[in-house]
Amino acid sequence: MHLTVDIEMEEKILQANTKLAEMNRRLLRQHGVRAYDFMGAIGSGKTALIERISSILMERGLRVGAVTGDVAGDDDARRLKSLGLPVVNVNTGKECHLDAHYLHHALEELPLDELDIVFVENVGNLVCPADFPLGTDMRVVVVSVTEGDDMVRKHPVIFGISDVAVVNKIDIAEHVGVDPKVIVEDFRRVKPGGKIVLTSARTGEGIEELMRLMGL
Which of 7, 42, 75, 94 has minimal CB crowding within 10 Å? Predict the structure, then answer.
């Protein structure tokens, strides 16, 4: 009985999240804003990639904002604010992911009428975010070569639901003894025909290709 109740509660939570995600999607569309959910482990380079892409977009005259999610702290938010982005920081406490409810309240604090693009930096985790779509236009999962070449094999679900997969920090792949091709091959098995790109947020390699895959 206890197991049945737990499963039913989980299903209700996921259903509620799906409804809220659709509300977020409609809200963003009403304001003409495109949104991107960046998922990945701590240290994968999500913030650095968002910084790179945001700078390019702003140079092109686009208006960019962000929502940063972390269990605690505002380090990522401060980095993005230093670029001149309006940013809402969300601390989830014990929660290992953002959900549609968190994002809905964050969007209420952003000047959506003054934005074209919103980046959502999810909590650093390769498990929990997969089950909680936020209502963004795309979901981007980032893995760094410093995490090893087995990350797709260990976390197939989040790569399977992603719209774009990113293998970051390829400029140091040789130094950490990782072959990015192994990660790409694993991804091809998990998601045949899926979009994947190799990048270095530090050098800028692959950033334009990533933006192309994101429709930017």
Answer: 94
Extended beta strands in 55-136, E state: 64-70, 87-91, 117-121
Domain count, the chain: 1
Distance CA 29, CA 22 (A): 11
Yes or no: say if 156 and 55 are a contact pair by the CB < 8 Å rule: no
CB 125 within 8 A of CB 96: yes
Distance CA 132, CA 167 (A): 22
Tens-place pLDDT, residues 168-209: 999 999 999 999 999 999 999 999 999 999 999 999 999 999
Q: At residue 148, what is the residue type?
A: G
Report d(CA 141, CA 204) in Å as an integer. Answer: 18
Sign of the Cα torsion 117, 210, 197, 150 reads: negative
pTM value?
0.93
Domain that holds residue 196: 2-213
